[in-house]
Each structure stands twice: as C-alpha cells, then as structure tokens.
Design goal:
This protein has about 290 residues and is mainly α. It contains eleven helices and no strands.
C-alpha cells in the first residue's frame, strides 16, 4: 500500500513538473519576443500591423504584406491538401487496413512527413515551378513560376501526412458493430462512410486539419525557396509574395541591432500570436463538433 502511494506521489510530481516546464517555456518564449519587439512597437505603433511598406533603408516597416501572404498561402495549401488527405485516410483506415500494400502506403505517408523541408524546396524549384510556369502560360497570366500558388502546392504536399495520419487512426477506431448495423439496414459502403464513419471521426479529422494548418503557417525554408520573396501585398495567387517566416529567414542575418532587427522580432511575435489564436479557435471548433 505504501509503495503504491509513493508511486502515485512520484507520478503526480512528474506530471506537475512537466506542466510547469511547458508553462515556463511558453512564457519565456512570449516574453523574449515581446522584449525584443518593444523598440519597434514604440517607434512604429499600431501602424506596423496595417502598413503595406517594408523598406529597411528608409526604416519603414509594415507586416501587412507578410500577414496576407502567410494566410493566403496556408489556407490555400490546406484547401488543396484536404481532399487527398481524406482520401488517403479512408483508403488506409477503411479499405486497406492490413496487408502488404497497406503497410507500403503507410510507410510512404510517413516518408513524406519525414523529408526535410529544404529537400521539398529543391524539388519545388526543379520540378514544380516549371510545371506551374507552363500552367500560367496556358491560362494567360504572367509566367513567374514562383509565387503563392507554387508555395501553396508545395505546402499541400508537405502537410498531407498530418491530416491523413490522424484521420486514419480515428477512422480505424470507429466501432465495427455500428458499421455492421448500418449495413444490416441496407446501407451501401458510401452511405456508411458518409453517415457513420465521417460523423464519428470528424473531431479527429478537424484535429489533423488544425495540425496541418499550424505546420503550414510556420513553414520557412521550402516556402522561402518558391514564393518569390516579394515584399508587396499579393493581388493574385500567381504573384510572387512573402510570408512572415520567410522574411525573417531572409533578412535576420543582415539586420543589425536596431529598428530593423526589432521589427523582425515583432514579425515573429505576430506569427506566434496568430498561431496561438488559430489553435485556440480550432480547439473550440473541435469541442463543438465533439459534443
């Protein structure tokens, strides 16, 4: 009895220390970003968040082009990846749960998730950008090749495993007796998927979508290599643009301690707050669908 109490006490202490560690890490990250961005906040004020000009020489800094580039690229990538992610999840979670082919496909999905982002960037430049350039010529837009559309396609490939893996695991947990009951009432496989499996697994699917969105918002290297790095407000998805992560990666090494450096830290703080806000909203949506 005493040994069991000691084990419980050690377990509870470990959980408390883990929670405190996470809290300290988040607070340290937020406070360090806030302290580094204070000079830019004092000098630029709220105009930093709605200004469209980014000129380090004239010391005019505005995050609006990068904020729009980040949101457009991330949500477009999510929209492009979602159908294929759900198809893969249904294939591996419902149609091919076991067997050699199922194992091979699962390994391929895991491989896509494990490939470094810089490799995706090289692949995007060598393979994806020329195809996008040909497509742009076909539809009559400026054939940049690089731009929001190319980076969204690349991000879509990168985030497919995040949604597909979580959705597959939730689909596999759908009780078999519920499916059998639907079949016994005359439902087809399509009806079972639509009316039984998807409603049961929607919270897990939304969790995978949220994870994919977080990956897309913070992706740096691959997006930097194919988005074009143009510090302007995008007016078309085929136009070169920039994201908050890519502008930090491009300019941080050249920024000396001063307003330019502090503005880049403020861009990082904006990305941090945006990610936290979207995660909070996503969690609320998941809870609403779960109830």
């Amino acid at each position: 009895m005493i040994k069991q109490l000691n084990k419980d006490r050690i377990f509870n202490t470990t959980l408390t220390l883990a929670a405190l560690t996470i809290l300290i890490l988040v607070l340290a990250l937020a406070l360090s970003l806030l302290s580094g961005s204070l000079p830019a906040l004092k000098s630029l004020g709220l105009g930093f968040f709605y200004s469209a000009q980014w000129d380090p020489v004239a010391e005019h800094f505005g995050v609006l082009p990068f904020l729009l580039g980040t949101l457009i690229t991330s949500f477009l990538a999510l929209l492009l990846s979602l159908p294929l992610s759900l198809a893969i999840a249904l294939l591996l979670g419902e149609y091919m749960r076991r067997g050699f082919l199922a194992g091979a496909f699962k390994s391929m999905v895991d491989l896509i998730a494990a490939v470094p982002s810089v490799i995706y960037g090289f692949w995007g430049l060598m393979f994806l950008v020329p195809i996008v350039r040909i497509f742009e010529m076909k539809i009559g837009v400026a054939p940049y090749g690089i731009g929001i559309f190319s980076s969204a396609l690349l991000l879509a490939v990168m985030i497919i495993p995040n949604t597909a893996s979580i959705a597959r695991e939730v689909i596999e947990m759908v009780p078999a007796d519920i499916q059998e009951a639907a079949y016994s009432l005359g439902a087809t496989r399509y009806d079972v998927i639509r009316r039984v499996i998807i409603p049961f697994a929607r919270s897990g699917i939304l969790a995978g979508v949220l994870l994919s969105l977080g990956r897309a918002l913070g992706e740096t290297m691959a997006v930097t290599m194919v988005i074009g790095n143009a510090n302007v407000i995008p007016t078309s998805i085929f136009q070169p643009a920039n994201t908050m992560a890519s502008v930090i990666a491009n300019e941080l090494a050249e920024a000396h301690l001063g307003l330019h450096y502090s503005s880049l830290v403020l861009v990082g703080l904006t990305l941090f707050v945006l990610t936290a806000l979207l995660n909070y909203l996503g969690t609320r949506i998941i809870k609403r669908f779960t109830v």
